[in-house]
Fold this protein.
Amino acid sequence: MTEQVAESAARSDRSFLMPGALGVLALIAGLAGARLMELGTRIGISSGVLLLVVALGLAAVSIGGRPFGPDVEGPLDLSARMGLGLLGGVLGGLLHGGLTALTGSFGLTLLAGVGIDVDLSAAEWLLRALKGSVWGLGLGVFYPILPGRRFIQKGATFSLLPSLYTLLVVYPVFLGFGIFGTGQGLLTFPFVLIGNALAGILAAWVISWGERTDVAPVSAPLVD
């Protein structure tokens, strides 16, 4: 009996460690892909997209062996949440770009002394949509376990991830603007937090819309 318990515990540890390791690799590949896309060059975007595809594949394998069905997934299954999250992420990325352009047009960034680029080119609009789609896929994956009962709380909570990535990685490491982007102005971080929060809430609303409609595929066991 003791040997059976030990063997079962070992299998449980392996079943926990392997998805966790793949999840870490997926995160690393995703961050590297996002960094390459930030370069804005053709090679950078192409390589970044390939790395993001790898990251999504690793994430899919990582979560593929976990429990499924309405009892653990809620009204929407994983594929439905990821599809809706992708759509919501694209819309959220475009919303973020629109808010950036509007704050520049009304002179809010200039008034606050924030040096955020508000004159977006067509490539930058596309880049925001692509990055938004990646974050939206992540939102779809983790949507059921995010804190909060409504999409507003879930979207705002998840938006902290891209915000922290921008403030603690992109600005200080890649662009040399210092922690929280203070090199662009002391009030840079509120603009980043608010913009990403609104984009995240929009993406979460798209997923919540799927929960309230009958047209999206719902969770159902593959076998009885």
